[in-house]
Amino acid sequence: MASVTNKDFYENHHIIGAEIAREILEPLNVKEEQINHIQKCILNHRGSIIKEKRTPEEICIADADAMAHFYSVPSLLRMVYVEKNMSIDEGAKFVANKLERSYKKLTPEGKKLIEPHYEASKILLKKI
User: Fold this and answer.
1) Please, which residues have CB within 8 angstroms of residue 39's CB and are 6 or more apart in sequence?
2) What are the boundaries of each domain within the chain?
3) What whole-number distance in Å separates Cα of residue 90 and Cα of residue 92?
4) Rounded to an integer, what distance in angstroms lies between the CA atom of residue 41 and that of residue 18?
5) Which contacts of 6-14 are long-range, i.e. CB under 8 A and separated by 24 or more positions?
6) Which phi and psi angles does 123 have, rounded to 5°?
7) C-alpha pair distances (Å), 57 with each of 45, 61, 79, 128
8) Average pLDDT, rounded, for the chain
9) What is the pLDDT of residues 9-65, one digit of tens each?
10) Which three-class secondary structure state does DSSP give residue 69?
Protein backbone atom coordinates (compact mmCIF):
# COMPACT_ATOMS: atom_id res chain seq x y z
CA MET A 1 0.00 0.00 0.00
CA ALA A 2 2.73 2.46 0.92
CA SER A 3 4.78 2.14 -2.26
CA VAL A 4 1.65 2.77 -4.29
CA THR A 5 0.96 6.02 -2.46
CA ASN A 6 4.49 7.33 -2.90
CA LYS A 7 7.31 5.77 -4.97
CA ASP A 8 9.83 7.18 -2.46
CA PHE A 9 8.44 4.71 0.08
CA TYR A 10 9.56 1.69 -1.98
CA GLU A 11 12.50 0.62 0.20
CA ASN A 12 10.58 0.92 3.47
CA HIS A 13 7.08 0.25 2.17
CA HIS A 14 6.57 -2.60 4.63
CA ILE A 15 7.31 -0.34 7.61
CA ILE A 16 5.29 2.60 6.30
CA GLY A 17 2.46 0.25 5.29
CA ALA A 18 2.28 -1.13 8.84
CA GLU A 19 2.08 2.43 10.20
CA ILE A 20 -0.67 3.33 7.72
CA ALA A 21 -2.61 0.21 8.74
CA ARG A 22 -2.55 1.33 12.37
CA GLU A 23 -3.72 4.82 11.37
CA ILE A 24 -6.65 3.29 9.51
CA LEU A 25 -7.59 0.64 12.07
CA GLU A 26 -7.37 2.55 15.35
CA PRO A 27 -10.23 4.98 14.54
CA LEU A 28 -12.32 1.92 13.60
CA ASN A 29 -11.86 0.60 17.16
CA VAL A 30 -10.13 -2.56 15.97
CA LYS A 31 -8.68 -4.47 18.92
CA GLU A 32 -5.00 -3.87 19.64
CA GLU A 33 -4.25 -7.59 19.25
CA GLN A 34 -5.75 -7.59 15.76
CA ILE A 35 -3.89 -4.42 14.77
CA ASN A 36 -0.62 -5.96 15.93
CA HIS A 37 -1.30 -9.12 13.93
CA ILE A 38 -2.12 -7.14 10.79
CA GLN A 39 1.00 -5.04 11.23
CA LYS A 40 3.12 -8.18 11.64
CA CYS A 41 1.67 -9.57 8.40
CA ILE A 42 2.55 -6.36 6.58
CA LEU A 43 6.05 -6.20 8.07
CA ASN A 44 6.78 -9.83 7.18
CA HIS A 45 5.34 -9.86 3.66
CA ARG A 46 8.41 -8.46 1.95
CA GLY A 47 10.28 -11.07 -0.04
CA SER A 48 13.64 -9.30 0.06
CA ILE A 49 13.63 -9.43 3.85
CA ILE A 50 13.41 -13.06 4.86
CA LYS A 51 11.35 -13.47 8.01
CA GLU A 52 9.56 -16.59 9.09
CA LYS A 53 5.89 -16.49 8.27
CA ARG A 54 4.01 -18.51 10.86
CA THR A 55 0.36 -17.72 10.38
CA PRO A 56 -1.85 -18.42 7.37
CA GLU A 57 -2.39 -14.68 7.04
CA GLU A 58 1.34 -13.94 6.86
CA ILE A 59 1.83 -16.67 4.26
CA CYS A 60 -1.13 -15.49 2.21
CA ILE A 61 -0.05 -11.84 2.18
CA ALA A 62 3.54 -12.73 1.27
CA ASP A 63 2.33 -14.91 -1.61
CA ALA A 64 -0.11 -12.24 -2.78
CA ASP A 65 2.65 -9.63 -2.76
CA ALA A 66 5.00 -11.83 -4.80
CA MET A 67 2.20 -12.82 -7.19
CA ALA A 68 1.33 -9.17 -7.77
CA HIS A 69 4.68 -8.68 -9.49
CA PHE A 70 3.54 -10.94 -12.33
CA TYR A 71 0.47 -8.76 -12.90
CA SER A 72 2.50 -5.55 -12.89
CA VAL A 73 5.24 -6.28 -15.44
CA PRO A 74 4.45 -3.03 -17.33
CA SER A 75 4.92 -1.07 -14.08
CA LEU A 76 8.19 -2.87 -13.40
CA LEU A 77 9.40 -2.05 -16.92
CA ARG A 78 8.42 1.58 -16.47
CA MET A 79 10.35 1.66 -13.19
CA VAL A 80 13.56 0.30 -14.73
CA TYR A 81 13.45 2.32 -17.94
CA VAL A 82 11.92 5.62 -16.82
CA GLU A 83 12.74 5.96 -13.13
CA LYS A 84 16.03 4.03 -13.00
CA ASN A 85 17.09 4.95 -16.56
CA MET A 86 18.48 1.47 -17.28
CA SER A 87 19.47 0.25 -20.72
CA ILE A 88 17.09 -2.11 -22.57
CA ASP A 89 19.10 -5.24 -21.71
CA GLU A 90 19.86 -4.14 -18.16
CA GLY A 91 16.19 -3.36 -17.45
CA ALA A 92 14.91 -6.63 -18.91
CA LYS A 93 17.46 -8.56 -16.86
CA PHE A 94 16.52 -6.66 -13.68
CA VAL A 95 12.82 -7.43 -14.14
CA ALA A 96 13.49 -11.06 -15.07
CA ASN A 97 15.61 -11.52 -11.95
CA LYS A 98 12.97 -9.88 -9.74
CA LEU A 99 10.28 -12.18 -11.12
CA GLU A 100 12.50 -15.22 -10.67
CA ARG A 101 13.15 -14.30 -7.02
CA SER A 102 9.44 -13.70 -6.47
CA TYR A 103 8.54 -17.06 -8.01
CA LYS A 104 11.08 -18.94 -5.90
CA LYS A 105 9.65 -17.45 -2.69
CA LEU A 106 6.09 -18.57 -3.41
CA THR A 107 4.47 -21.48 -1.67
CA PRO A 108 3.79 -24.52 -3.88
CA GLU A 109 0.16 -23.41 -4.12
CA GLY A 110 1.20 -19.92 -5.16
CA LYS A 111 3.60 -21.28 -7.77
CA LYS A 112 0.83 -23.39 -9.27
CA LEU A 113 -1.44 -20.35 -9.58
CA ILE A 114 1.15 -18.04 -11.09
CA GLU A 115 3.20 -20.43 -13.23
CA PRO A 116 1.54 -19.52 -16.59
CA HIS A 117 2.24 -15.83 -15.90
CA TYR A 118 5.83 -16.59 -14.92
CA GLU A 119 6.44 -18.57 -18.10
CA ALA A 120 4.85 -15.82 -20.23
CA SER A 121 6.98 -13.13 -18.55
CA LYS A 122 10.16 -15.12 -19.29
CA ILE A 123 9.21 -15.27 -22.98
CA LEU A 124 8.38 -11.56 -23.07
CA LEU A 125 11.57 -10.49 -21.35
CA LYS A 126 13.76 -12.59 -23.65
CA LYS A 127 12.30 -10.70 -26.62
CA ILE A 128 13.10 -7.27 -25.20
Assistant:
1) 18, 21, 22
2) 1-44, 59-128
3) 6
4) 8
5) 7/83, 13/46, 14/42, 14/43, 14/44, 14/45, 14/46, 14/49
6) -65, -45
7) 10, 6, 29, 37
8) 88
9) 667 888 888 999 999 999 999 999 999 999 988 888 875 566 677 889 988 988 998
10) helix
